[in-house]
């Protein structure tokens, strides 16, 4: 069993686009103040709060919202090594372990030393044109190179560790983390990877007369996706797409740090949650 984790300096953030997120966060802050904690609170977009996180003021972020909230919290907290505990108010909650009606019980367990930290691999993605880096991102789920508004498929050459893997004619190519294997990559037909792995998953989207199977790269391998046609874009963790030009490439490797999620119980929780999520309606 992993080492116990008992935080002492919590911060609570909410996702403003989810109804009731701030109201639920207010209840959480009131509960924690009753435990003797001085707990700052704000939006996940609050610049002042984000600055304090980066300065190392907190040893846990309690994120109230859905999977998107966890993605945004992960982008902020992973470089600082701050663990995240997600309280699910969203529809799916693949990244969450604590539901809305459970957090009081889970906080008691948290401060009793019954929680542990799960490390989730993140990706580092770069947009390169003519040797110049035009963009650099960190991803908890995936980096996607895909067709833009034009409905024509795109040609994408994929090189692994500097050697050509194959050229795809497809609607897009997903480079995902094990965490992202239950997100867009799963919808595109990819396999589900356990969250503690450190392998990049490559999944083509609607391949046309191309390799139509997902590929799991060896741990430590990197991939370069080279654009061989116009009408391509890149999107990281569902953020607005950015246009790519022919011969641009998006280079993806494991990031130097991991996102840290607060977990309860044994590590087999993932498979139990997976079964629950795969057998319920989400609309």
CATH level-4 homologous superfamily of the largest domain:
Probable inorganic polyphosphate/atp-NAD kinase, domain 2
Q: Which word captures the global form?
A: elongated
Percent of sequence in beta strands: 35-45%
Domains, number? 2
Q: Which class of the largest domain in CATH terms?
A: Mainly Beta
Total strands: the figure is 18
Low-confidence stretches: none
Task: Summarize, please.
The chain is α+β, with helices and mostly antiparallel strands and 283 residues long.
Give an overview in words.
With 283 residues, the protein is α+β, with helices and mostly antiparallel strands. The protein folds into two domains: 4-114 and 265-278, Rossmann fold (3-Layer(aba) Sandwich), CATH 3.40.50.10330; 122-255, Sandwich (Tumour Suppressor Smad4). Helices cover 19% and strands 38% of the residues. The protein is built from six helices and 18 strands. A hairpin with a 5-residue loop joins strand 16 (232-236) and strand 17 (242-244). The mean pLDDT is 93.
Keywords:
Tumour Suppressor Smad4; Rossmann fold; 6-stranded antiparallel beta sheet; alpha+beta; 2 domains; 283 residues; 7-stranded antiparallel beta sheet
Describe the SSE topology.
Layout: E1 4-5, E2 10-14, H1 21-34, E3 41-43, H2 47-54, E4 60-65, H3 67-77, E5 84-88, E6 98-99, H4 103-110, E7 115-129, E8 132-139, E9 142-147, E10 154-160, E11 163-170, E12 172-176, H5 184-187, E13 201-205, E14 215-216, E15 223-227, E16 232-236, E17 242-244, E18 249-264, H6 269-278
Parallel strand pairs: 2-3, 2-4, 4-5, 5-6
Antiparallel strand pairs: 1-7, 7-8, 7-18, 9-12, 9-16, 10-11, 10-15, 12-13, 13-14, 15-18, 16-17
């Amino acid at each position: 069993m992993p080492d116990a984790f008992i935080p002492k300096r919590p911060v609570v953030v909410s996702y403003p686009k989810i109804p009731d997120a701030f109201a639920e966060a207010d209840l959480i802050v009131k509960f924690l103040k009753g435990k003797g904690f001085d707990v700052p609170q704000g939006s996940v977009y609050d610049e002042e709060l984000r600055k304090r996180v980066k300065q190392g003021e907190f040893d846990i972020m309690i994120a109230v919202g859905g999977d998107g909230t966890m993605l945004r919290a992960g982008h902020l907290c992973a470089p600082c090594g701050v663990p995240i505990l997600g309280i699910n108010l969203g529809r799916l909650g693949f990244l969450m372990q604590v539901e809305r009606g459970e957090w009081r019980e889970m906080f008691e367990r948290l401060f009793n030393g019954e929680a542990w930290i799960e490390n989730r691999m993140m990706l580092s993605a770069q947009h390169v044109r003519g040797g110049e880096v035009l963009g650099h991102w960190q991803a908890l789920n995936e980096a996607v190179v895909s067709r833009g508004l034009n409905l024509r498929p795109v040609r994408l050459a994929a090189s692994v560790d500097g050697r050509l893997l194959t050229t795809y004619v497809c609607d897009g190519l997903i480079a995902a983390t094990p965490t992202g294997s239950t997100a867009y990559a799963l919808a595109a037909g990819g396999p589900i990877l356990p969250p503690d792995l450190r392998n990049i998953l490559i999944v083509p989207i609607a391949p046309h007369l191309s390799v139509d199977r997902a590929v799991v790269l060896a741990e430590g391998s990197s991939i370069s996706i080279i654009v061989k046609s116009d009408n391509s874009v890149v999107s990281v963790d569902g953020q607005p797409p950015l246009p790519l030009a022919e011969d641009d490439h998006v280079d993806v490797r494991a990031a130097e740090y991991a996102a840290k999620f607060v977990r309860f119980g044994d590590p087999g929780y993932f498979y139990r949650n997976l079964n629950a999520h795969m057998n319920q309606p989400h609309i």
